[in-house]
């Protein structure tokens, strides 16, 4: 266990003076780097790292020193991974703050993005709208659950009659998702199953109250140009949407016809305006009479990122 001067936490990274951290930060953005790091983001991340390292430890006898849960040299090693190797900050600290949750994440699992939080909001709106209708169990599905972020979030909004079944092909993702479910004491509400898309859901085929997914939607040709933190570390399985980026989205749309019950809700995340508009047109014209009220929904930034609707 190490100790850190209290001024560092009060003033931020500037309080570190000529320390290893500041030197590492200075080396992080070469002038000719085609994909430079955002220095303001790094400052915030470093502050979060130091604050996290001071949590849940006893008091120091010296009021000017704050005890650390780890040696300062170990923290520097983690920071070098972040800055010099471009390892995502969430993988460095092993968690991501998402909605009101703190989720375990690690390599092999897609880091949940803030915009995806909208999916849980959409589900909550539908649950509220259905309040008082029927008295049977309502089954919701999250396909390609990754860290389990959406599934855990849904577990808190589907109500007393609702339960969530989440699937993922990745063994690593299933392990991480199950941990996050247990962390929030949702084992009786959320079940994680391993398998590709709809394959683990035969027992609820045609019975789903709702179906959501944030599938891979990046065109294969665009993968080499991704930000270093994404392209080098996050799983290709969770990113690659095929030649046009639409392979998995089309599969989800077609499968929803069989797995949603009449009136069942769906919400799919896309890469943005062009994909969402294509998907709306596909579901209305190619899957004629299968769905109603199909529309594109904007994210926090005003980008039409989600496609929602109901089974006819």
UniProtKB/TrEMBL annotation:
CDD domains: AdoMet_MTases. One of its GO terms (molecular function) is nucleic acid binding. Residues 140-217 form the Methyltransferase small domain. GO terms for biological process: methylation. Keywords: Methyltransferase, S-adenosyl-L-methionine, Transferase. Pfam families: MTS. PANTHER family: PTHR47441, RELEASE FACTOR GLUTAMINE METHYLTRANSFERASE. This is Methyltransferase small domain-containing protein. It comes from Acorus calamus.
